[in-house]
Amino acid sequence: MNAAETWHAALHRLQREGLPHVLATQVTSAGSTPREPGARMVITEEAVFDTLGGGTFEWQTIAAAREKLAAGETGMSLEAFSLGGRSGQCCGGFVNVLIEVFPGSGTTLALFGAGHVGREIVQLAAPLSWRIQWFDSREAVFPAWADEQPRLSCHQTLDAESTVASLPARAHALVMTHDHSEDRALINTLLARGDCASIGLIGSQSKWASFRGWLIRAGHDEAALAKVRCPIGMASGPNGDKTKGGDKTPYAIALATLAELLPLAASPAHGEHRGLSADALRPLLSTPSVHSDDT
Length: 295
Hints:
Residues 109-261 form the XdhC Rossmann domain. InterPro entries: MoCofactor_Util/Proc (IPR052698), NAD(P)-bd_dom_sf (IPR036291), Xanthine_DH_XdhC (IPR014308), XdhC_CoxI (IPR003777), XdhC_Rossmann_dom (IPR027051). Residues 15-75 form the XdhC- CoxI domain. By secondary structure, the chain is an alpha/beta fold. The chain folds into 2 domains: 7-104 and 269-288, no CATH class; 108-264, NAD(P)-binding Rossmann-like Domain (Rossmann fold, 3-Layer(aba) Sandwich). It contains 9 helices and 11 strands. It has a 6-stranded parallel beta sheet, covered by helices on one side. Strand 6 (108-112), helix 3 (116-125) and strand 7 (131-136) form a beta-alpha-beta unit. The two termini are 29 Å apart.
């Protein structure tokens, strides 16, 4: 157990940072039990915060929570423990534990470039649940406020290959560095990796035409090139061309870019059922009994 942080402090921090975790709550008890209903603990893949009383029963709760995290499950489930049977403890009581799995942020945005548009995108995306990895090759370029934004990490880019290799699978990438050669190297490496959820490139149609020719010569086919959206921020001008009018301010381009990205980054539906099933609720509304296989 991590004694330095209470369950509610850990829950607040993990949800703010968008990290996977489980909240385990003792919801009913009968007979002699280590703790009373309302006791809670928070469980991650590597740590435990607070306690439900210790012993085998608690370790079984932790194991069940981590199994669900590893399987990528979401939502709520109910675990029943006979402290004299399933858990082999001497208390002899019976408890139900509600396990709530929070999978963390399901979307990672890799943003390359800390210029004016990049800064606006990061600030506009702050209320979203996305985790943002922000990259730039220049030193001391990230603003001071970046340290305070949740789910945001800043990295100095060493080279395109190592940077792109560090991204999680199915990340969304936006390329908008200060240097066209850096943009080109990043697009080339992102396409070569092949598992990005989406790739966006800032610039004009003429920039993309130049990039297309270079990427074709580098060995990328039309199917690969079709994965790149360029220009991004289409609302900033007719047909997305920044040279033909429209609002060219960084805020407007960032706003339009995020509007394009939102439907691409939408999490898949997990079904219409919400909450606990009737079968899971039934033990909470009746006197618990110990089944023969628990003894």
